[in-house]
Structure formats: C-alpha cells, structure tokens
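anyone seen this seq b4? input:
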Amino acid sequence: MAVPNPASYTPYFSYRRGRLHCEQVALEAVAREVGTPVYVYSRAAIESAWRRFDRAFRSVPHTVCYSVKACSNLAVLRLLADLGSGFDIVSGGELERLLHIGVAGDRIVFSGVGKTREELRAALRAGLKLINIESVEELEMLAEEASRLGRRVPAAVRVNPDVAAGAHPHISTGRRLHKFGVDWTEAIAVYRRGHQLRVVDWQGVSVHLGSQILALRPFRQAVTRLCRLIECLQREQVQVRYVDFGGGLGVRYLAERPPSLQAYARLLASAVGRFGGHLLLEPGRSIVGPAGVLLTRLVVRKRNGGRLFYVVDAGMNDFLRPALYGAVHPITPAALAHQRRLVRADIVGPVCESGDVFLHRWPLPEGLPGELLVVWGTGAYGFVLSSNYNSRPRPAEVLVEGKRFRVIRQRESFADLVRNEIL
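predicted toks r here
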C-alpha cells in the first residue's frame, strides 16, 4: 500500500525538510495564518502553464483565451491579463469581472447556451472580439439588440460536431444529445439566416467538445468535421477569420496520461493552417488545475461498520468535484510521516450528506486530529463551484508568489452569509 506523491509531477510544489511547500512558502504557514479550508495557487505554475500553451501554437496565428469559468478570482484574471491572455466567458458576470480589472472587450469571446438579452446588450456595448451563437433563436435576439444599439456584431456559430469526449458525462458537451451548440448538419442554415440580418458580421466558426479529454482521437474527429464545414462556409461566402476550437485538453490528477501539448498543437495548427485563419483556444483546467491545492485539517477519526473515517473541515460545499463527478483528487499530509503506519480511510467532510466524500479507502499515514492535509489539483473548478450549503462560509483563496503569499479572497463570515437576506 503506497501513498501517492503528486509533488513528484508538479514542479511548483515540493517537500522540503519534510514540509510541503508551494514555491518557497510552507503550506503549514499559510494554514496557520489564514486558517482552513483554504485554496492555495502558485503564480509561477499559472504563468508557466499559460506560456507553454502559447508557445505550443507559435506556428500559426492564435490567441489563448483563458476560460474564466475554471477559476474566476480577480487576482488570477489580472495575472493572466498581464501575460497578454484573451478570455472566454459564459455569463454576464464573467464579463463584468473582466471589465472590472480593465480587460478590453476585443480580448473577450462570449460563449454559452443561454445568453439573456441583458447579457447580449452588455456584450455589444463592450465591443467583444466574438460572440458564439448557439441557436437560431439566439441569433435573432442578438440581431434585434444590435439593431437597437446601431451596432454590427462579430459572430460565429458554435457547432456541435456529435463527437464523444470528456472524462464524465457532465463535462462532455459535443454530442447531439447535449444542449450545446448547433448540430453541425444544420449550421449552414444558421449562417444563411445571419446573412439576411444586416447587423450580423460572420467571423468564423466555433466548436468545443468538453473537458478533461485524455486522448487525441475526439479532437481529430472534430477537426475532420470542422474542416468539411469550413469548406462549405467558404462556398457560402462566409468569412472564416477565426476558428475557435474551445478547450478541453486534460490534465494529470493521479494516473491519467493526457496527450502531450505539442501533439495537440500540431493537430489543430495543421488543420487551421489549411484555411489561413486565426486560431482561438480556450484552455482553463490545463492552465490553473495543477496550480492549486486545497488545505484542510483532520477534525476527528471514527469507525462505523468496520470502516475508518477521517472527517475533515472541508466539505462538498467547498470542493464539489468528487461528489458531482466522482473525481479522484489525491490527498496527502502536508508533513511527511515516515514512521507512522499506513491505513486506508474514507476521507469525508462535515456536510449533512452521505455524498460528502472526497475519497474512499484512501491510503495515507495514520493521522492525528488537527493534522493538515492537502487535496491536490484543485486550481480549476474548485472555489468557483463552492456554495454556502449547510450555511457554511466559503473558504479563503491565497496566491503564492515566490517567498510570499497574499490573500486574494477573504474567508466568508456569518455576516456575509446573511448580508442579502431581509427579515
């Protein structure tokens, strides 16, 4: 029974003198000062991941548009904006976050299956780079709002290529049975309707298959169908300035073996190069996922029915992926414990739900109440999925920068929980 060591494949986290560090900061120091649960992100890891992604596509004109939904903290967004990143959004709230930190509209692409009139108006006023249409009804609504504002709108159709991809059904978005996009066989009709609406300025085509994709085959299938569609669009006199291929490239959490970034880039770049377009990429998880961890303390050990339970102070309201997707995120002590015997424990949270489980029968050194534990790979879809279920305040967020760290979101208080309620 071996204890997994995710630090072995994450260079920005390492054990020094038996204590886990993020960059040059001991995580125990963060927990003492800020408390637990707390999300901790490595600035160097985020910057390095974004730059690697950008370099991989240097052979073709491209823009890396970070997917805001993965981690939308303002400090993280500012960091990426300073690197020169574009951004992919799926709501008016995400647009407001970017405008709040001074990101220009022409660096933003707006996707999403349920855009409201209010969101479309805000997008038009902000002058976004591209709005990805996901239905003919949305196209009509966008045209009405653009006419009222006297604007022409740069647009693309998000095509649903009917390709199976994604590590879980809830994060697969490119099948015909999913709500996303326009069926690829019906896309030409939407483009033709757009030609009739004088305010619509077709700029290209968009596709997104899902998330945590661990093989190149789905991307290859989608590229084949997308190339056929682009050839049809050119015959229809549709300008294909942008080819938006979304995101979805998977990361390693435990034993996954995602495709290399270089192989992924070669596949997409060769396809786009045939048409001379500008490639838009929307990575989220692959930029911030491995860059974050969640710190939590062991509250109590107990046995029920012969099973050992470790109850920690983080719950499914703090980190939902294990309960929502059955996602496996390794958990290790923040301090090495070579002398302790190994046990297998169900690591569970305090929320009043049987589904509040992080891991079943997970191997780790026998722990003591108060011990600091680390949940790995929580930089993406961590805090953004948190809630106040069971009236639990949401955790703090911390950014490590070399030898220092700073709080980039204060821990919520009881006053925050009831701030918007009226007796």
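The longest strand covers residues 292-304. Residues 167-176 have pLDDT under 50 and may be disordered. kinda curious what u guys think
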